[in-house]
Design a protein that fits this description.
single chain, 89 residues, mainly alpha, 3-stranded antiparallel β-sheet, elongated
Length: 89
């Protein structure tokens, strides 16, 4: 498979957690588009928060899939080394 990898992420509750510290964030009363993290003090637009959290989830999932593929390759190589008859030349 060539090209750009695509990872699907469920967007539910992605604007509820601070992308900086991971704690729950609150809406400003005057402006519902702005969110404020009471722990780290970061203030951002809710769409920016959601996009950062979606990107983080996708990156984490992509890295996890990549690690699984690497582990499978290592296991395959180990099995081939244990059984020289299975090695492909």
């Amino acid at each position: 498979m060539d090209g750009i990898p695509v990872v699907f992420v469920d967007p539910k509750r992605t604007s509820k957690l601070c992308p900086i510290c991971g704690n729950r964030i609150q809406e400003y009363r005057q402006n519902r588009r702005k969110l404020l993290c009471t722990d780290c003090g970061k203030s951002m637009d809710r769409d920016v928060v959601a996009s950062m959290n979606i990107a983080h989830k996708a990156w984490s999932r992509f890295n996890m899939l990549e690690m699984i593929q690497v582990k499978r390759s290592i296991l395959l190589l180990r099995n081939q080394c244990r059984n020289p008859a299975m090695m492909m030349w």
